[in-house]
Fold this protein.
Amino acid sequence: MKRIGVLTSGGDAPGMNAAVRAVVRKAIYHGLEVYGVYQGYNGLINGNIKKLELGSVGDIIHRGGTILRSARCEEFKTKEGQAKGIEQLKKFGIEGLVVIGGDGSYRGAQKLTEQGFPCVGIPGTIDNDIPGTDFTIGFDTALNTVIEAIDKIRDTATSHERTFVIEVMGRDAGDIALWSGLAGGAETILIPEDPFNIDEIVERLRKGQERGKKHSIIVVAEGVMSGTEFAQKLKDATNMETRVSVLGHIQRGGSPTAFDRVLASRLGARAVELLLEGKGGRAVGIVNNKLVDYDILELFDMPHQLDLKMYELSKELSI
Ligand code: F6P
């Protein structure tokens, strides 16, 4: 293999730049040429592809977002879109592709793999919802952003003796809600993996009030319902007034934490090693702090496991 490509796709995540840097530097270190595919699969279809040098990825390790830009691309879900993409890869003489992204990005990499094009997937999404890895790039940074917000909301919740409902991202996964709720000392955490019971929540709030608690933080994963919907449900059940905060896209931005930068560097370098070893069609991850890789076509046969013990712990600690 002489020439590889790298793209970022789907929702951006802090640390994607660090992963791009690692791919480019590791590849050049081993004598490969690297091409950046801009705007995700859109750019692949349209040939928005440029050569990257060592300096192209200088001064980006600490920057959020992705210098390669990103997109959600409907056309790449079609056979025609995929054929156009492969044509562009051939035109540029690219023999292997590193795809950094989440669920949708992996589906695209699977399609390329099925058509015989060597791809390696790197999990980059704040949602932490990719199977085969304990952590995805961007999750830790997003978590820290959410914690900062929860801490600030807690200040005003305490002053005004209010209950706050905080809606966090995560798509269909509850990881951001669970980890941030536990770290932020939330009284209640709602995750899609465990259907909630409104009576239980009301009882929990009542008990807290009985022992003198004047404020509460409820973290709702967007995969459960919107914060506003949940606040209405609570109002219907208790007549309680709450304030709702939807954290939204601030969760996707910001300078990556050290954890995300290191994770991105390790995964990026491993992806290149696999291509150098002639192993396409793989998905890299980290399990128990060890780098692992799986057949990308079988990845979604494995479940993404949220840590339910941690969920139980969060309930025990917030009595
Ligand atoms: O997958 C990352 C994510 O931020 C999810 O948490 C969220 O549901 C989605 O992307 C939002 O997507 P968009 O930026 O396209 O609105």
User: Anything to note?
Assistant: Residues 11, 72, 102, 125-127, 169-171, 222, 252 surround 6-O-phosphono-beta-D-fructofuranose (CB under 6 Å). The longest strand covers residues 3-8.
